[in-house]
Design goal:
Elements (H helix, E strand, L loop, with lengths): L20 H18 L5 H9 L2 H4 L3 E5 L6 E5 L11 H5 L5 E5 L16 E5 L2 H11 L7 E4 L5 H10 L4 E5 L2 H13 L5 E4 L12 E6 L8 H5 L1 E11 L7 E7 L6 E5 L30 E5 L4 H4 L1 H10 L4 E6 L5 E7 L4 E6 L6 E6 L4 H14 L8 E5 L4 E5 L6 E3 L8
Parallel strand pairs: 5-6, 5-8, 6-7, 8-9
Antiparallel strand pairs: 1-2, 3-4, 9-10, 10-11, 11-17, 12-16, 13-14, 14-15, 15-16, 17-18, 18-19
Helix pairs in contact: 1-2, 2-6, 10-11
The protein binds S-adenosylmethionine.
Amino acid sequence: MTERHSPTVAPPLTPDTDPGGDLAARLRAELADELHRRGDLRSPEWREAVLRVPRHLFVPTFFQRTDGPGPTTWTPRTGELGEKEPTSRLETVYSNTTLVTRLDGDRRPQDVEGPVTGTPASSSTLPGLVVRMLEESGARTGDRVLEIGTGTGYSTALLCERCGDGSITSVEYDAGAARSARDSLTTLGRHPTLVVGDGLLGHPGTAPHDRLIATCSVRHIPPPWLDQVRPGGTLLVPLSGRLPAYGLVRLTRGERAGEARGEFLPGCVSFMGAAGHGAPAVGGLPNPPTREDATERATDHGPAVLEDWTTAFLVQLAVPTARLLGIRAEGGAFVEHLVDHTTGSSATLLPDTGSGYRVRQTGPVRLWDAVEETLERWERAGSPDQSRFGMTVTDHRQWVWAGSPDGPRWELPTDAPTR
Ligand SMILES: C[S@@+](CC[C@H](N)C(=O)[O-])C[C@H]1O[C@@H](n2cnc3c(N)ncnc32)[C@H](O)[C@@H]1O
């Protein structure tokens, strides 16, 4: 039988733990109202947690994003909480916004001066998404929860409020982020089990867990996660791949080892890829191969299938090792290339010049043929949107199905992850 922990009562907020005082409390209430209006925050218990956890303690500094005609830049926000530029830092922290806290590995806002370029490495997830996932996880008082990706520790603190410190374990890969999260949680008087390490391995020391919540995305369910959730327990996991295409799936662990099944949740999510499951950076990859075996033909499917939430996910299922490169052609328009560097294959969607779309393919795998075959199977099943997809996991295979478990299915690559 699973040992139950009763929730520890959080110490009262003090000027040390909640330096924003009344203003921060008011902003938290406004954030909770907004998340309720949006449908992300539904239960009084999670509302109470949002009201009690000072997000600014977990995100004392962050990078503010600016998209311009050139590359995206990141401006460090490290000043006083009330400082205006143009909104106060406190107001930004309590807006429904993802806040990037580290760039390129371990570069923090306090390490740079002025706007910089870089790739986000850690962030405090959009509060609406954090809360929606916590609601969807079904976590309740006393549940033993394994969180993968502590990040700033904000979601860990919410879990402690709802379930009790003693039943929460959170694993973070990045030692610097883990240290900051531990400091913030300790300041708040919260003491969950915090582990620095590879969350793809889970944490057998606190298993079996009732719930697993991943806050970074994976290409398939790592087998240790299934071993460490009790039969009947649930796993809430963002799935991703090599394209920018995501889905949030909630699985119930089966009675037999390594087995789980479940359904995708509605709505759009985007999460950074878990170390070990993320796509290699595009920079440095060779351009699409030009080969003599190129063939060109008309296609009914234009670039819109790469933009639509459901069909982009289907493209990823069809060609799981392909990347999407948008390259500006002479004359200005972006041309979409699917490129699979593992097989040296590519598919280029040529812009419609009035007689429909054409695709040029090279290499041993005809990527667009595979995409069209997938789209046709999905259309024959009634074109269900992603919220009608599901997933089945056995101890040696994993697949996504569309519409019903007997509908069309696609195997997920469960090969050794690439680092
Ligand atoms: C979106 S952030 C988490 C946000 C967090 N829940 C919060 O509220 O601040 C994702 C985190 O997952 C971590 N991560 C990535 N790969 C990981 C892995 N293999 N194991 C554990 N943590 C990982 C990243 O370092 C990052 O801090």
